[in-house]
Design goal:
Number of helices: 11
Mean pLDDT: 76
Structural class: mainly alpha
Helix content: 40-55%
Shape: elongated
Low-confidence stretches: 170-180, 182-188, 241-245
Radius of gyration: 32 Å
Strand content: 5-15%
Strand order of the largest sheet: 1-2
Largest sheet: 2 strands, antiparallel
Number of strands: 4
Distance between the termini: 83 Å
Length: 245
């Protein structure tokens, strides 16, 4: 049978280029050597004894040798002294942009549901040890859904008006009522005595800072629906407790 069809279609039997053939045989030899040295054939672990855990440990030791001297110079210093160092602040900025900016923003200004770290308002205290505890161990802030529980106590709009009357308004279109609700009893006792304290300051409802928004609709939504604010623990990611300072 001739290898020719329709006059123009011809099947040829040209040999492959020698460089291609040699490269093929080199690849085959490399594959055999690789499978002898490294795991790749079922349960056979390879003659070289390589493991991913061992490789990880080597990288960790290499990183420790490189970075430990940098961190150790700040380990025994108080936070105030560390904060005075330009080198430490630059390191902290890089850590912040890596681990914190996704939630709190690159300027630390926060967003809805994520606290502003650039002001003087702190949910869990602003001293150095409290901040370090928040970063290392995380926080879980829960606003339970109280719509059903409070439905018979006060209408949603009434509770919202009471909440907003505790704090200076940040919305021009709204003004506090001429006779704001009594702070000891409103918002309803369930909010003040069980959640925010009788003075409304835990978390603070008497300032202009609103974690989930200070509009009437936002407050009404938070007073009737649940809100779960979670600060994930960063101790394992940052490895060294002092590095979170």
């Amino acid at each position: 049978m001739e290898h020719k069809w329709d006059g123009d279609l011809v099947e040829l039997n040209n040999p492959l280029p020698s460089w291609w053939v040699n490269l093929f045989w080199i690849t085959m030899v490399f594959a055999v050597v690789y499978l002898v040295l490294y795991p790749g054939l079922g349960q056979f672990q390879g003659r070289a004894g390589w493991t991913s855990f061992g490789e990880y440990d080597k990288e960790v030791e290499k990183a420790k040798a490189k970075y430990d001297p940098v961190f150790n110079q700040f380990m025994g210093q108080p936070v105030e002294q560390v904060a005075a160092s330009a080198e430490a602040r630059d390191m902290g900025q890089r850590l912040f942009l890596t681990y914190c900016a996704q939630c709190h923003g690159s300027d630390a200004g926060g967003a809805t549901g994520f606290p502003n770290l650039a002001d003087k308002d702190w949910l869990y205290a602003g001293d150095a040890e409290s901040i370090k505890a928040s970063i290392a161990n995380g926080r879980a802030g829960v606003m339970p859904a109280l719509g059903a529980a409070l439905a018979r106590t006060a209408p949603s709009r009434s509770r919202t008006t009471c909440s907003r009357s505790l704090a200076p308004t940040t919305t021009r279109a709204w003004q506090p009522p001429a006779r704001p609700c009594s702070k000891p009893i409103a918002p309803p006792a369930t909010c003040l005595t069980q959640r925010h304290g009788r003075d409304g300051r835990r978390p603070n409802l008497t300032d202009k800072v609103w974690l989930y928004g200070g509009s009437e609709s936002a407050i009404m939504r938070r007073s009737t629906r649940a809100a779960n604010g979670v600060m994930p623990a960063q101790l394992q990611a940052l490895a060294k407790p002092r590095s979170i300072s």
